[in-house]
Amino acid sequence: MRGIIYYIFLAAIVLLMVSLVLSFNEQFNLQRHVSIPATKFSSQSFFESLVSQGVQNLKQPTSLLILQILVILLASRVTAYLFGFIGQPAVMGEIVGGILLGPSLLGLLAPSVSHFLFPPDSLGRLQSLSQVGLILYMFIVGMEIDFGKLRTKVAEAFLISHSGIVFPLFLGMGLSFFLYNEFCPQGISFLPFALFMGVAMSITAFPVLARIVKEKNLGGTKAGIVSISSAAIEDVTAWSLLALIIAVAKSTSIATSVLSLQLVIMFIAFMLLVMRPLLKKYQHLLFNPNRSDIFGITLIIAVLFLSAITTDVLGVHAVFGAFITGLIMPDEIKHKSPVKIKLEDFTSVVLLPIFFALTGLKTQLGLINSIHLWVIFGLVLMVAIVGKLGGVVIAARFSKIGWRDSLILGVLMNTRGLMELIALNIGYDLGVISGPIFTLLVLMAIITTFMTGPLLNLILTKDSFTQA
After folding, report:
1. Phi, psi torsion values for 393, nearest 5 degrees
2. Per-residue buried b or exposed e for 58-79, using 16+ beta carbons within 10 Å of the residue's own CB
């Protein structure tokens, strides 16, 4: 009863205050000559005003960013779910979902909706979020590469991985002779363009490959072990080449390019010879079962971002520093620390779909609007498949691996996926490749990844191939 009386008293005070404000409102307005426009109330005008105000509020930076993330997450989840029905990894659906949000579908069918959701002045915020996602993702990729498990097949892995780089690199650089004049952006010399085309043909998606090996129960087979080992070595080599390209593309002279590369080599040496032993020596302080993991995770993320900033300042991309940081993590941290699990879920669910959406906004299938361009695409696709799959199969057969396992290796190493998209976006943002070539290479990455599952199913059937 006392509570009811108290609330009645509070309500009376509020009503009194409202009455005073209303009674003095007109008097103060007259004194200050404030004119209040007369409004005629109707349900229709009220609804229109409410909708208009809601639209204006959605255009505010924070509201628009939240709406963009929501749309991107829903689109990526739906497409990932649908692609799962046809036996494709979720990342394939997310990549396609991102492209569907771009000018290739949403921009074509509903340009006003596309412009409202992704106005040009809002893309900077999404770009920043996606870059943070890429830094975290490349750190996770580096942590997944376990060099301790590579020693059993190191000779075969080195031969196969480098063959899987040299063949497509050679063919891609050869292809650049025919594409440079027509497709290279103004102001870019032939060297970075040719190098980038070669590396774009050479990349293998190590994380996607590892997941496919697991899904197909190939982890205990020779083909599965060698493919993961080769992909790991190839990733390190390919990203080192990409760092070289970035240094060459950003430098104003050969001298600055050489200096930048020397500084990057010094950074790698510091991470391997100083930072890794330090982390290994004090890893018991980073993760202690008797206390919270927050201190260790904070310290590792601090090292990660410092490395990313360092490589960015040195003239190569921040993702390279993140990748190196993941590589030099001691085995104890890689296998037992919660840092990978805690970062991986948020990165893969929230941040990477943003990257896919931005890739989709850059991918314009409408640019491939002539038979000539489709012929160029066919040529790019053929070079990518023949160079990678053929190079790996030749090296595998040279290593006395049977035909069946050699073909499995070639198909697995031909998987490009997200790693290819990261490299393509770096090249596009640097201005090394143009919009049409970017679109052609994105399509190539999708098709070469998409074909992995069906080709593996064909090879793994009992009557398809026999062990040599």
Report:
1. -65, -45
2. eeeeeebeeebbebbbebbbeb
Q: Rounded distance, CA 159 to CA 11, Å?
A: 82
Which DSSP symbol is given to 153? G
Contact indicator for 413, 388 with CB cutoff of 8 Å: yes
The two structure tokens encoding residue 116: 């409202």
Q: How far apart are the first and last CA of the chain?
A: 91
Q: From CA 460, how far away is CA 337, in angstroms rounded?
A: 36
CB–CB of 401/327 below 8 Å? no
| pLDDT digit string, tens, across residues 58-102 | 778 888 899 999 999 999 889 988 988 887 878 888 888 888 888
pTM higher than the cut 0.90: no
Yes or no: say if 97 and 358 are a contact pair by the CB < 8 Å rule.
Answer: no
CA dihedral 279→284→286→292, nearest 10 degrees, is 170
Task: Let me know: does 380 contact 183? Beta carbons within 8 Å.
Answer: no
Percentage of the chain modeled with pLDDT above 70:
86
Alpha carbons 77 and 81: distance in angstroms, whole number:
6
Question: Running DSSP on this structure, what letter comes out for residue 103?
Answer: T
Q: Pull the structure tokens for residue 80.
A: 């990932």
Phi and psi at residue 221, to the nearest 5°: -90, 160
Cα–Cα distance for residue pair 387/366, rounded to 1 Å: 28
What is the chain's length? 468
Q: Do residues 282 and 346 lie in contact, with contact meaning Cβ atoms separated by under 8 Å?
A: no
Query: Residue 171 contacts by C-beta under 8 Å, 6 or more apart in sequence?
Result: 198, 201, 383, 386, 387
CA distances from 295 to 140, 280, 334 (A): 19, 16, 16
Buried b (16+ CB within 10 A) or exposed e, 202-235: bbbbbbbbbbbbeebebeeebbbbbbbbbbbbbb
Reported as a single tens digit per residue, the pLDDT across 371-394 is: 989 999 999 999 999 999 998 999
Q: Give the chain's radius of gyration (CA, Å).
A: 28
Q: Which one is predicted more confidently, 336 or 44?
A: 336
Question: And the tokens for 141?
Answer: 């990729």
3-class SS of residue 101:
coil
What is the mean pLDDT of the segment spanning 319-331?
87
Which residue in 164, 174, 211, 130 sits closest to 421, CA to CA? 130
For residue 226, give every residue at least 6 positions away whose Cβ sits within 8 Å of its Cβ, in sequence order, or none: 153, 156, 157, 160, 396, 401, 405, 409
Around Cβ 35, how many Cβ atoms within 10 Å? Answer: 6
pLDDT tens string 337-368? 778 888 888 888 888 888 888 888 888 888 88
Surface-to-core class of residue 320, CB atoms within 10 Å of its CB (0-12 exposed, 13-18 middle, 19+ buried):
buried
In the Cβ-directed half-sphere of 23, how many Cα atoms lie within 13 Å?
6
